[in-house]
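Response to reviewer comment R2.3. The reviewers asked that we include at least one raw input/output pair. We reproduce the pair for T9SS type A sorting domain-containing protein here without editing.
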Amino acid sequence: MGGPFGPALCEADFAAAQARQSQPALGGASTLMGATLGTVVTVSDALGRPVTSTTADAAGTAALVLPAGLPAGVYLVRVGSKALRLTVE
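Raw output as returned:
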């Protein structure tokens, strides 16, 4: 599963995070909630190239600040061993 310290997101939190991430990212930013403190959150493009990464804070929140000029499309957000889709408009 997630190693000796537990998964990055429990299944319920992961489902809730997926629901929140179903909204398109507007203005170059999105917020992921429900992660474990210190979990690395990485955004990659469809070819697997890293776009940005951050670390979840004590509240389990990770602010995903996307680079200016990022093309519209679907991106992959990795949170520990889990993954979410992020739509950028």
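The chain has a mean pLDDT of 77. The CA atoms of residues 19 and 87 lie 12 Å apart. Further pairs are available on request from the corresponding author.
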